Amino acid sequence: QESPTPPTPRDSEASIHTLRIMASKMFKIGTHSGTFHCDEALACYMLKLLPDYKDAEIVRTRDQKILDELPILVDVGGVYDPPTYRYDHHQRGFTEVFGHGFTTKLSSAGLVYKHFGKQIISVVSGLSDPKAIDTLYLKIYQGFIQAIDGIDNGVPAYACEGPMNYRISTDLSSRVKYLNPAWNEEAVDVDERFAKAVEMTGSELVQCIERYAKTWLPARILVEKAIEERQKHHKSGSVVVFTKYCSWQSHLHELETEMKMAQGNAPPALLYVIYPDSRGAWRIQCIPEEEGSFVSRLPLPEPWSLTINRATVNTHFINQSRSDQPIINL
């Protein structure tokens, strides 16, 4: 009797692929029925971005017997236990936060992002560099997920007291709330409305990840490189020169803190940024004391502003011997 032909690598890959397909079809994501909110809609979308859950069915119920049989739950069940894939935040005594300096209590969206966020960023952006993913992981929580956590948990955005000057009702959480049936609507398919909420929250998250990955991160890399090479342009180390213009303020202030650089209004603190404009001329900008401030760390000399315009200031501050290289005289 002939021995059976051993499986080829291609056969093994096909078997693994088949098993993965079968497993994904078996997966179901559980969440609660009834009125829905932004956090569980986004949590479901984030899970479905992952290969293991992309074909998973979303089951909306409050029947505990059904929930107990599901492999993963978000925003329901009264348990937060990552090893068993339980991600609820409503139970008494729940205090989980994202960490890394963030103190807002997590919603189900924050919980899913905390445990799966790096994988999600990699899937959406196509990035594989751990440093880049780690950087985006924190920034996207700060710029997108944290607000959803805070709103769902009733955490005010501002600590100040007194009446609000105006209310914001166009944020993502509010727009999801409006998808719920109104009190006088009849014969509404709530699960269909929830599906719309899932798509809406997810599409905005994807846009956010892509924006940070394609524009924010490249700018940060340029700013970091310019800071590291600042001594090449001036011995004080106070002048940062960009080879091309980019949005730099938030990156510069964040990187100063991360790199534990000197602060203040004198060298070696960072004081000025020089960059080429769209016409090829070199421009100078004073670095503000903090992001968004109109107060400069070290303003340019007062006589310059009284006698010459900003374009002339550039020629006083920078003598160009070559069109592509500023020579700085301080």
Task: Provide a quick synopsis of the model.
The chain is of the alpha/beta class and 330 residues long.
Structure description:
- The structure is a single chain.
- The chain is of the alpha/beta class and 330 residues long.
- The chain is 44% helix and 13% strand.
- It contains 10 helices and 12 strands.
- The strands form 4 sheets. A 5-stranded mixed β-sheet has the order 2-1-3-5-4. Strands 8-9-10 form a 3-stranded mixed β-sheet.
- β6 and β7 form a beta hairpin.
Low-confidence stretches: 307-323
The number of strands is: 12
H and E string: HEHEHEEEEEHHHHEHEEHHEE
**Which sheet architecture does the biggest sheet show?**
5 strands, mixed
C-alpha Rg, in Å? Answer: 26 Å
Separate helix tally: 10
Report the structural category: alpha/beta
Helix content: 40-55%
Ends distance:
90 Å
The proportion of strand residues reads 5-15%
Shape: elongated
Mean pLDDT: 87
Q: Please give the order of strands in the largest beta sheet.
A: 2-1-3-5-4
Please specify the SSE layout and strand pairing.
Blueprint lengths: L8 H18 L1 E4 L6 H11 L8 E4 L3 H6 L2 E3 L5 E2 L4 E2 L9 E3 L2 E4 L2 H18 L4 H23 L19 H6 L12 H39 L10 E3 L7 H10 L13 E5 L5 E5 L15 H6 L2 H8 E5 L2 E4 L2
Helix pairs in contact: 2-4, 2-7, 4-5, 5-7
List keywords for this structure.
12 strands; 5-stranded mixed beta sheet; elongated
